[in-house]
């Protein structure tokens, strides 16, 4: 089932067209990375999905429920973590979750149980400190707990890791991975390694539309070139191998660094067999033979030119 469907979405601010016919479908039980350059329109899209911003055209449905500007019905199945979550600094995490639970009408026993469970999940259980003394990472973790209080089917996070150090980022990514069983997670980010670490789906917003969308393996597959890294026993072997006539075909590049050769070629698949045949003919046994995956960074750079 699709948990979020965006059809032909348009939004402009004055003469600046930010979204120009955006289509995006997010299946349930995925971790979906929503990527785009600064100003691409990620926050704008999320605000429209939450009914906080009026689109100029198009339709959005969350859990099959059509989103209307200013309406809140469709938000019943959504949890939202803004990029800079705001809290009452004088409260403790337990007090804060209690307040949020009361506002949303949860029964008090449920608030206590759910609060304990969530603070445990985000590593803040037993923290008696007031939120005013929390680090940025702790605030993001508390923000996730709050967003999950009502057991949403969809959790939307706006750049949850951008301002955090590597440990803080890992903590957030681990939490998002842990909740995917019950909750579909959409998160916007600039940090492509975070997407590679936990997302199974990714979409790249560029020029008001999606420039790429799919599972990580589909996207990698459609951009795959033959790339190989061969480590020889010594630089001399690498040099001898690099001089094979068959590696000099047009479009093939061979770069050497000590005993390591990196060979790239536009011919999908075939080049690998050629390399293995050449190694066998020359009776050379490499220390490593690796097929190179294109990085998301190189794929995205190519998609937005
Ligand atoms: N209320 C507004 N009024 C005018 N322009 C706006 C408004 N909100 C956003 N914009 C503009 O729309 C564009 C998209 O902004 P948005 O915040 O959606 O981008 P983003 O992809 O989330 O960027 P970032 O990664 O930097 O947060 C930007 O050029 C921004 O300046």
Automatic annotation (TrEMBL):
<dbReference type="InterPro" id="IPR027417">
    <property type="entry name" value="P-loop_NTPase"/>
</dbReference>
<keyword id="KW-0067">ATP-binding</keyword>
<dbReference type="InterPro" id="IPR003439">
    <property type="entry name" value="ABC_transporter-like_ATP-bd"/>
</dbReference>
<dbReference type="Pfam" id="PF13732">
    <property type="entry name" value="DrrA1-3_C"/>
</dbReference>
<keyword id="KW-0813">Transport</keyword>
<dbReference type="GO" id="GO:0005524">
    <property type="term" value="F:ATP binding"/>
</dbReference>
<keyword id="KW-0547">Nucleotide-binding</keyword>
<dbReference type="GO" id="GO:0016887">
    <property type="term" value="F:ATP hydrolysis activity"/>
</dbReference>
<protein>
    <submittedName>
        <fullName>ABC transporter ATP-binding protein</fullName>
    </submittedName>
</protein>
<dbReference type="InterPro" id="IPR025302">
    <property type="entry name" value="DrrA1/2-like_C"/>
</dbReference>
<dbReference type="InterPro" id="IPR003593">
    <property type="entry name" value="AAA+_ATPase"/>
</dbReference>
<comment type="similarity">
    <text>Belongs to the ABC transporter superfamily.</text>
</comment>
<feature type="domain" description="ABC transporter">
    <location>
        <begin position="4"/>
        <end position="232"/>
    </location>
</feature>
<dbReference type="Pfam" id="PF00005">
    <property type="entry name" value="ABC_tran"/>
</dbReference>
């Amino acid at each position: 089932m699709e948990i979020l469907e965006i059809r032909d979405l348009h939004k402009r601010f004055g003469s600046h067209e930010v979204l120009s016919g955006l289509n995006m479908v997010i299946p349930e039980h995925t971790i979906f990375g929503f990527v785009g350059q600064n100003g691409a329109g990620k926050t704008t899209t999320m605000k429209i999905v939450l009914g906080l911003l009026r689109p100029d055209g198009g339709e959005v449905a969350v859990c099959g429920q059509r989103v209307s500007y200013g309406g809140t019905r469709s938000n019943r199945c959504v949890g939202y973590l803004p990029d800079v979550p705001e809290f009452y600094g004088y409260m403790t995490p337990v007090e804060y979750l209690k307040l949020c639970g009361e506002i949303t009408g949860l029964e008090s026993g449920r608030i206590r149980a759910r609060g304990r469970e969530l603070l445990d999940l985000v590593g803040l259980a037993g923290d008696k400190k007031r939120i005013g003394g929390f680090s940025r990472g702790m605030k993001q973790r508390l923000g996730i707990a709050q967003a999950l209080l009502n057991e949403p089917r969809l959790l939307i996070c706006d750049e949850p890791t951008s301002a955090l150090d590597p440990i803080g980022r890992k903590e957030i990514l681990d939490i998002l991975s842990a909740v995917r069983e019950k909750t579909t997670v959409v998160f916007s980010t600039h940090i492509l390694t975070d997407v590679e670490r936990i997302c199974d789906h990714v979409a790249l917003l560029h020029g008001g539309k999606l420039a790429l969308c799919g599972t990580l393996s589909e996207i990698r597959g459609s951009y795959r070139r033959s790339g190989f890294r061969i480590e020889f026993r010594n630089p001399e072997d690498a040099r001898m191998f690099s001089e094979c006539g068959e590696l000099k075909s047009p479009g093939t590049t061979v770069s050497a660094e000590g005993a390591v050769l990196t060979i790239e070629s536009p011919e999908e698949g075939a080049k690998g067999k050629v390399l293995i045949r050449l190694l066998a003919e020359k009776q050379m046994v490499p220390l490593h033979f690796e097929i190179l995956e294109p990085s998301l960074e190189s794929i995205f750079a190519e998609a937005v030119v």
